[in-house]
Specification:
This protein is about 50% helix and about 10% strand. It is of the alpha/beta class and about 200 residues long. A four-stranded parallel β-sheet has the order 3-2-1-4, sandwiched between helices. Helix 7 packs across helix 8.
């Protein structure tokens, strides 16, 4: 049984300045709440939009804020993510540490898989485990930017959402038979897009 519900009955048309101001306010409240701790804390910093936003809000509120980034450098070629994280750290003023990733071991997987309790499709969990172990040598709490991609559009794939939104507006105003004719040429993705405009199956 769901313990929450979303109410979409009260909507408002946002201007960009109003939306940005409201988001900044909510982000500040959320980060401030996570900074309430009686032990030293820090954060992970990849240099991306999400973790950088959290770091920028947390920095003025925490003295000597420590940040960490894990990466894999090959020879003299530095990990691009670590390079970007160092730039962000230098801009906002955190005490930054770059952690070098090591080759995952079978023992590490044997320990991690039961902890997740579900199938694991990516070796990224070993990076998170290595970084957590390194951070734990200095801190007990670390904030992350995980989960913010849908809000801040941190990945390039989210750029297509604006185009799809415009397409939905156009398709919603086209005659049903016309959309069905186009749909026969557009494949499954077109059908899903059409169904999202009005909740009806056009087949």
């Amino acid at each position: 049984e769901s313990y929450w519900s979303l109410d979409f009955s009260k909507r408002r048309r946002w201007t960009w300045p109003d939306a940005i101001e409201a988001y900044e306010d909510q982000l500040a409240k959320s980060v401030s709440g996570c900074l309430m701790s009686d032990v030293p804390l820090g954060l992970t910093l990849s240099g991306g939009v999400d973790s950088s936003a959290v770091a920028a809000v947390a920095r003025p509120k925490v003295k000597n804020l420590r940040s960490y980034c894990i990466g894999y450098s090959k020879g003299e070629q530095e990990d691009p993510e670590q390079v970007l994280a160092e730039k962000v750290s230098g801009h906002i003023g955190t005490t930054h540490q770059s952690i070098q990733c090591v080759q995952p071991s079978l023992d590490q997987f044997i320990r991690l898989v039961p902890a997740y309790g579900q199938p694991i499709w990516s070796t990224a969990i070993t990076y998170a485990d290595t970084m957590a172990a390194s951070i734990a040598q200095h801190l007990k709490v670390a904030l992350t930017g995980g989960g913010a991609d849908e809000v801040l559009g941190g990945y390039r794939s989210y750029r297509t959402l604006r185009i799809e939104g415009m397409a939905r507006n156009v398709l919603a105003n086209l005659p049903h038979f016309f959309c069905s004719a186009i749909g026969s040429l557009g494949g499954e993705r077109f059908y899903r897009l059409m169904e999202s405009t009005n909740g009806n199956d056009i087949t």
